[in-house]
Amino acid sequence: MTAGFDLNAFTRDGFSRFGGPDVAAAKARAEASMLDAAHIIAVRTLGADAPRKAALGDQLAAMHAAEADNAATRACYEVFPTLPEVIALINAEPFLSAARQAGLTRPVAGTNPLVRLDRPGDTRFSTPWHQDYWYSLLSERAVVIWMALGELDASMGPVELLAGSHADGLVPFKPYEAGHEWFETAEPVREDGIVAGLHGPDEAVIFDQRVLHRSGFNASDRVRVTIQLRYNDLDALSELTSTFTPSLSRFVLERQKALLEQAEEARHDA
Ligand SMILES: O=C(O)CCC(=O)C(=O)O
Question: Does the CB atom of residue 226 touch ligand 1 within 6 A?
Answer without folding.
Answer: yes
